[in-house]
Amino acid sequence: MQKIIYIAGFRQHAGKTFTSLGIISRLREVYSPNEIGYIKPVGQELFTLPDGRKIDKDAIIIKEYALPSLNLDTVSPVRLGRGVTKSYLESQDQELLTKEYCRSIDEAISKLKDKKIIIAEGTGHPGVGGIVNLSNSDVSIRLNSDIIYLAGGGIGKTLDMLEVDLNYFHSKGARVKGIIFNKLIPNKIDDMKKHITEEYITKRFSKDGSPIHILGWMPEVKGLNKPSMRLIKKSFQNAIIAGDSDETQWNRPVTGVTIISQSYKKVNPQENVKAGSVIILSSNSLRRLKKILVYTKSQAPQDRIAGFIFTCTKKQESFPKSLKLVTNYKVPAIYVREDTSTADEILYKCIKNTKLQSHETKKSDQIIKAFKENFDLEKFKNSFLG
Question: Secretion signal: which residues (predicted)?
Answer without folding.
Answer: none
